[in-house]
Design a protein that fits this description.
- With 88 residues, the protein is mostly helical.
- It has one domain.
- The protein has two helices and no strands.
- Helix 1 runs antiparallel to helix 2.
- The longest helix has 32 residues, at 51-82.
- Keywords: Membrane, Transmembrane, Transmembrane helix.
- This is Vitamin K epoxide reductase domain-containing protein.
């Protein structure tokens, strides 16, 4: 189970970095008054109203929750290995 949690953590980390990278790229273009280069939807000019921004927010929330789960999984794993006695 811990392998799945670690894989989820890595995937969400990559997705979070990718989403924020796209948003920052769009934000820089917007500040420099350039056209949207990554594919803004319709005529939306403000990058805070694009799917990139909302995706970055949700990826960040998911990543934080995954980090909490991973931390608890690791701390419970070390506690269980110390007190690992079989009841017969």
């Amino acid at each position: 189970m811990r392998k799945i949690i670690k894989a989820q953590f890595v995937i969400l980390l990559c997705g979070t970095l990718f989403a924020w990278g796209n948003f920052i790229y769009e934000l820089i273009d917007w500040v420099n008054k350039k056209n949207c280069t990554l594919g803004c939807v319709g005529n939306i000019k403000n990058p805070f109203l694009t799917p990139c921004f909302f995706g970055a927010i949700f990826f960040t929330i998911s990543f934080i929750l995954s980090a909490i789960i991973l931390k608890k999984s690791i701390s419970h794993g070390t506690n269980n290995s110390k007190n690992n006695t079989k009841i017969q």
